[in-house]
Amino acid sequence: MKWLRHQKIGAFAFLVLPNFSALAQPSLKEQNALLLKQLKEVHQLSPETMTKIEAIFSKSGFIGQGNPAITKHPLTPKECEEKGKKSGISYENQLFEGICGAKYMAPLYNPQTQKPEEAQSCIDQFEFPSIPCAYPVVWVRASEAAEICEAQGKRLCDAHEWEGACQGELLPPDYDFALVKNKDASTALKIMRQNHNKRESARKKWAYGTASKPGICAMASTKSAGCNGGNWKDCGSNTYPAGSFPDCKSALQVYDQHGNAAEHMNLPISPDQLSTDSSKTYGHTEMKGSWFIFDKFKAHEDYCRWRAPYWHGSKVLDSHSHHNYHLGFRCCKSVGNPK
């Protein structure tokens, strides 16, 4: 732990991690100890909160920033910090922090009709741990992601919230609840996805603009040789530090929604499954965004409002919900008074 140090760049304080390439290869436990210390210090989390999060990590045996034995990140946190220093970028935003009540979150609203202060929810600006220049956490199940969010007083985002953050405008929920009432989950999800994508295909947009472009987001990394679909031993989580590509952001100041890690979201098929519902029953898993090799291999659509097929589908709270080497998450948080 003595390896940790802070570096001040403008108004932003980075927590600098050691260069493990010059040291003995860390174990996942050692890597996570540093990550969790960073999480606690940057987000000023209480001992009680950290105890809950540490228990989730320990029980998993996989959650972290990738298998240290095989992962090869294309950029180090220090290089990310230097890049930020040269560009003069600062992620500090007192307005956002005041609205959201948490660091590195952005208010979700429609700029055409609302001001940021009118937002009813906020979203993490970066993939968890939502810290600039930290690698995203992967190998996390949707159920574990929901638990980690809730430990922080947040929740797993609903699909339309993630999409609104990416598109640069939060629209009302657009789930076809009435159309799929009394239908089984598989049928309901298929109908809802097809209807949604048909509506949205005419107005495709990416966080950074109206056309998909290579080189803008964290998509130029390489899949590990021998990675045959997703196993711990052979598949490195070769991600970039969060915010390494400052132009890969939406008009609402949300980063890395294209590339780096794909992300768990909640897809409800009935009103009580919205994550804003106090019962927190959640709905089904939705994997949003693209991942770190998309400049080289475009596996599927990745425009902001595209909804994926029911890949590795399950209920969000299923203890066996899917996890893999390029799948992470970010959290949302309800704020203000509901209208």
Strand residue content: 5-15%
Number of strands: 9
Question: What is the N-to-C order of secondary-structure elements (H for helix, E for strand)?
Answer: EEHHHHEEHEHHEEEE
What is the gyration radius calculated from CA atoms? 19 Å
CATH architecture: Alpha-Beta Complex
Enumerate the strands of the largest sheet in spatial order, edge to edge or round the barrel. 3-4-9-5
Low-confidence stretches: 1-6, 8-14
What is the C-level CATH assignment? Alpha Beta
Task: Fill in the CATH topology.
Answer: paralog of FGE (formylglycine-generating enzyme)
Averaging pLDDT over every residue, what do you get?
92
What is the approximate shape?
Answer: globular
What is the straight-line distance between the termini? Answer: 46 Å
What is the count of structural domains?
1
Residue share in helices?
10-25%
Description:
The protein is globular, with a radius of gyration of 19 Å. The longest helix has 16 residues, at 28-43. The chain is α+β, with helices and mostly antiparallel strands and 339 residues long. Strand 1 and strand 2 (12-16) form a beta hairpin. It has helices spanning 28-43, 47-60, 77-87, 94-100, 142-151, 159-167, 185-200; strands spanning 5-9, 12-16, 105-108, 121-124, 155-156, 262-267, 284-288, 327-329, 331-334. It has one domain: paralog of FGE (formylglycine-generating enzyme), CATH 3.90.1580. The strands form three sheets. It has a four-stranded antiparallel β-sheet with strand order 3-4-9-5, with helices on both faces. Helix 1 (28-43) runs antiparallel to helix 2 (47-60) and helix 2 (47-60) runs antiparallel to helix 5 (142-151).
